């Protein structure tokens, strides 16, 4: 059974940066699309960005647009999310999720989930 583990969360000041990682075990991410989702206080879980197995990128609306960059290293079974110019409203729990579909659709359609990593942006 594929398992995903996120890391790299923490507390940063507004304008700061973080790099989140999603590492898979028990299987390979090579043929899966992997997305980053987040749960911010008072809101439903929302998509951030998705990367297909071939590297195609899909943004979910304007969440993190121009500030967040997703990448994958299939040799290391890892997908990363580089976040810069962080804002207090980016505070929340960030999850990686994977699907056998070519790209990510809704959160409900994702098949594998990590347990999340907390990101707090505060001065």
Task: Give an overview in words.
By secondary structure, the protein is mostly beta strands. The chain has no helices and eleven strands. The chain has strands spanning 3-7, 10-12, 18-25, 33-39, 46-51, 57-59, 68-73, 78-83, 92-99, 112-113, 117-121. Strands 2, 4, 5, 6, 9, 10 and 11 form a seven-stranded mixed beta sheet that branches. Strand 5 and strand 6 form a beta hairpin. The radius of gyration is 13 Å and the shape is globular. The N and C termini lie far apart (40 Å).
Structure, briefly:
The chain is an all-beta fold. Helix content is 0%, strand content 48%. It contains no helices and eleven strands.
Keywords:
123 residues; mainly beta; seven-stranded mixed β-sheet; four-stranded antiparallel β-sheet; 0% helix
Approximate helicity band: under 10%
Count of DSSP-assigned helices = 0
Mean of pLDDT: 95
> N-to-C terminal Cα separation, in Å?
40 Å
Give the beta-strand count.
11
Overall geometry comes to globular
Main sheet? 7 strands, mixed
Computed Rg? 13 Å
Which structural class best describes the helix and strand composition?
mainly beta
How much of the sequence lies in strands comes to over 45%
């Amino acid at each position: 059974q594929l398992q995903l583990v996120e890391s790299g969360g923490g507390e940063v000041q507004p304008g700061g940066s973080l790099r989140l990682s999603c590492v898979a075990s028990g299987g390979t991410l090579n043929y899966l699309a992997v997305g980053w989702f987040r749960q911010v206080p008072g809101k439903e879980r929302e998509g951030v960005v998705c990367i297909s197995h071939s590297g195609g990128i899909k943004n979910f609306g304007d969440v993190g647009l121009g500030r967040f960059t997703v990448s994958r290293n299939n040799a290391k079974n890892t997908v990363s999310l580089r976040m810069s110019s962080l804002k207090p409203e980016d505070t929340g729990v960030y999850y990686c999720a994977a699907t056998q579909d070519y790209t990510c659709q809704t959160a409900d359609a994702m098949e594998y989930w990590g347990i999340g990593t907390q990101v707090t942006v505060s001065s």
